[in-house]
Each structure stands twice: as C-alpha cells, then as structure tokens.
Specification:
Length: 208
C-alpha cells in the first residue's frame, strides 16, 4: 500500500476512535476499519492467471472437475467509514490450493498446483456494496496460518490489501501477522463458518 493511503487509513482509524468517545460517535465505533496486511510474495500478475478470473475459484471454465478442498461461500459488504455501501468496487482474492501450493512461479511447489483451482478471482460490488466468492477453506502454507489474500480497488486506485483468517484456528496464535493485530482488528478479518442455504458460508464485511 502506498504510504499516503496508509497514513489516511491510520488517520481515519484515529478519528473513529475519537468520535467513539462521544455520544455522536456510536455509529463510527460499530464498524472497525479493516486492517491492512502485506501483499506477500505470490500475488499473481495478469499473465500468471487463468483466462477465467471470475468469483468462482473452484470451477474453471471448460474444465469438468472442481478444485480439491472444502468448498464454501465467502460474502460480505464493502462500506466506507461512514457506513455507506461502496458500489462498483473491485475485490480480488488469491490463495494457495488445498495442498498449500500457490499459482506463482516463485513458489517452488507450484508445479504441483491443483489445475482445477483458479487460485485468483475477482468480484465487483453491487449497489449495496455486496461481494461474493465461491472458493475453498484456506489451508496451511509453511510458516503461516491459513489465510486468504484480499485487495480492494476503486477503479485504478488500490484502497486496501489485507488477509482473511479462520476464526479460532490454533495456528493463529503463532502467526506473526495475525498476532500484530488488536483483538477487534483480528475479529474484523476472521471467518466464522456456518451452514447456509447453499452450504458452508462465511461473512467478512470490509471497511475502508
């Protein structure tokens, strides 16, 4: 993230905390500013992605088989710090496959990447700020707790890079990036899985 954007996010976070001290700040404290996180070394450039980059990562167009792993629906609402939904924003996610391999040539294990897994996908928020993905539960990558990488764009401008985690996963307590967050920040980017109408689901709302 560019320093100017990070400074803006820190300023907004401080303003929200100040407003929370007054009776007029109740709405501002209801939503925690989504914490940023490093992009990591395996962000797939356009040339590395499959031709299919939609929001269904477990089914690649023209392939019969689905990706290995536990499939779930990831959904949420993108809002500003004022609580207003942000429409027409691009949200990207990328993650390793069920065996912990990234779709990236710098990952030495990428030769074994699940060819039925898209690895990267995007969605565009609707008028209510809603986004949705179909993907697999993140698995352990060596040295990290299970996580999903996320980017939010407003046109060509990157607003946020973050990571989503599994709520209560035992490896969270040993993960350097997870441990640096406050409890409120960790809760804001933690996925809690429930059975929904179409199967396993998790909801993570994003505030920028």
């Amino acid at each position: 993230m560019k320093p100017i954007e990070k400074s803006r996010r820190n300023l907004l976070g401080g303003m929200a905390g100040f407003m929370g001290a007054s009776s007029l700040g109740a709405k501002a404290t209801a939503a925690v500013l989504t914490p940023d996180a490093p992009e990591g070394p395996y962000y797939p450039t356009p040339a590395m992605r499959t031709p299919d980059t939609d929001n269904d990562l477990v089914k690649i167009q023209d392939r019969v088989e689905e990706a290995g792993g536990e499939i779930f629906t990831l959904r949420g609402v993108l809002t500003g710090t004022d609580g207003q939904p942000l429409a027409k924003h691009r949200i990207e996610i990328w993650q390793c496959d069920v065996d912990g391999n990234y779709m990236h040539p710098r990952d030495r294990r990428s030769v074994n990447f699940d060819q039925a897994f898209q690895g990267f996908g995007h969605d565009v928020t609707d008028n209510g700020g809603n986004y949705v993905f179909r993907t697999i539960k993140p698995t352990i990558y060596p040295g990290r707790t299970p996580h999903i990488h996320v980017k939010v764009h407003d046109g060509s401008r990157e607003l946020l890079t973050t990571q989503f985690y599994i709520k209560g996963h035992p490896n969270n307590a040993r993960d350097a990036l997870f441990k640096r967050m406050s409890r409120a920040e960790a809760n804001a980017v933690s996925m809690e899985f429930v059975q929904g109408a179409t199967g396993l689901e998790a909801t993570v709302n994003v505030v920028v």
